[in-house]
Fold these 2 entries.
Entry 1:
Amino acid sequence: MIRYKLFTNQGTREKNEDSVGELDQNGRFCFALADGLGGHGKGEVASSIAVRSVLQLFHEEGEKEDFLRDSFYSAQNEVMKMQQRSYEFADMKTTLVTLHVSDGYVRWGHIGDSRLYYFSHGNVKLRTLDHSVPQMLVKLGEISDNDIRFHEDRNRLLKVIGSEWDEEDFDLGKRIPLKNGQVFLLCTDGFWEWIDETQMEFTLRQSESVEQWMNSMVEIVTTQGSGSQMDNFSAIAVWVTKE
């Protein structure tokens, strides 16, 4: 049984440039979340195109083995196509993270700094690595992982949808068997910057439903971000439970 909760909020910004979406198709699930880059213009259009194209492809080809890889190319092609239609959309870009549940397996992919966290037995087992300057500095050993959240270059992304790709710029996670008790969190940087992994784990262990967990995390995010210029913040929580 897959239980899930979607959330999005514009924070203190004039527009919400995040997009979230899901599709349940005969017991196969696809979740997609994107964060449009406002500094490049029309970020809300880019993010909505990316999410819509992933879900549309899932509707048409979700059973295919290469669906996940194809979905990133589809999102890239649709955003680039819109860029070419009008100068107004020429600079729009977006992150993208998606989770695919099908035939007893789970797989995910991402590009940019929107993240996926994978929890097992109440603990973070894995998170995607941002395609950003601070994440690169962590890899080089110049800063710690905790320094990413408020690093001065945190918004400098190295890979996004809407920029020309020299190669396959997105990352795909390995397919893992679906198991009772697995938990996944997809979220934009406006969400994860105000809640750390310890708080995610604590609220998860205290929650009896996916809705309660999401509400608890949102409360932390809004409290921690209060008084600041809060970015849009969005998340998708997915629980794997027994019938």
Entry 2:
Amino acid sequence: MPKTGKRFSAAKSAVPEGAKLAPDEAVRLVKELATAKFDESVDVATRLGVDPRQADQLVRGTVVLPHGTGKSVRVLVIAQGEKEAEATEAGADYVGVEYVDKIQDGWLDFDVCVATPDMMGKVGPLGRVLGPRGLMPTPKAGTVTFDIGRAVSEIKAGKIEFRVDKTGNVHAPIGKASFSEDQLRENLGAFMDQIVRAKPSAAKGTYVRSVTVSSTMGPGVSIDPNLYRRA
């Protein structure tokens, strides 16, 4: 849905043109400009100085946001035996090997899929369906593991996965407009710390080139990228 109309124009005019704000000032302004009749999501977009076409410059990882995303995450666990009970106890929404067939039949009513390594022979063929949607379990994301209880608990607590896109940008949710300024600032800080840690050794020049936060219907507010230009 495009951000257009009088409300957006008025909100955009409240953002200092060309200004690069401190994180606390930025989240305060984003909250003030989130005037829609629903609880808008708050997202961060970072532009990185990497070439995603090069395998040694991919930026991806996970981070547990201290205050979660404000969104209820539906977790599917593909496991069997005692790991099924472990998943259920940790709060997984759907558990069982039978979901492999359901996915093949078109069922996709979940947000994150976790699988034990011994199940990947069955899950692997689902890559054509799950891969393009970002739902395929992977060891790097911590979603292929025997530590099912921990994986589910972290996801439910606010663990998110991020990956640089083909244009060198990383987008991620950091909460809702109803969150306090402190909650948004701490979530943003946790995310950006992880982005900085994920800097590829092959990346040259300026790594964090821009940082912008915005709400679903609000304008982007720029943060001073120099705050994140540490090794």
